[in-house]
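Milestone M4 deliverable, item 7.
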Amino acid sequence: MKIVVLVKEVPDTYGDRVLNLETGLADRSASEAVLDEVGERALEVALAFSDNHPGTEVTALSMGPASAAPSIRKALAMGADKAVHVADEDLLGADYTLTAEVLAAAIAREGFDLVVTGNISTDGAGGVVPAMIAEHLRIPHAGNLEEVTISDSGITGTRATEQGSMTLSAPLPALISVTEQLPEGRYPSFKGIMAAKKKPYETVTLSELDIDPEDTAKARSIVVEISARQPRAAGTTVVDDGDAGEKLAAFLISRGLA
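Output delivered:
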């Protein structure tokens, strides 16, 4: 079986998030760059299956700048068999539609039985790319799974709902997105780190994916206005002198919340 896992380099979740007021893009140099944790969990799903099914090939696929290579190589050190890195300067500032189109083209070029990805990245937090990729590939999409079982012919998973949980299943080929309820990614061993240096690592450009270089990030989206987030104003303190309830009610009414 061929499993393609989507991974992504993101700013450290616990670091500062800074917006570049000239470009309108996130300043990724403001904090340490790391492999997205939910992507590591997606990779663990594939590797756990591969551990028990000889002959399975796991490919880590990512779209990002050339500087993302060290993070993507971590996926190889964790156990992925090969890596494909889509890197092209014309992708700077790509929106969700372009991102999904490019990743779908790269996945189709690679060939697959199953695509595994996180349900939402910690930087963009859109949560729509997995479904958009599945639409491009014309395959079933089972999203936001908290439990996953993979077989040679299909997948079964559980998704949390407001009423409880829902069980989903789909035949292969398919795409699944997983949540942070799945097990954490394994820690790269020294042996894995050394082995990663010899594993295939392919860098792909837009021209190799047959995507029109004129239809890129600059053509699809225009930044109209950029402004820094306003600092938080001081809150209102209610001192309980026996009438705190009345003060709180008056405050809520003044804000149209009651």
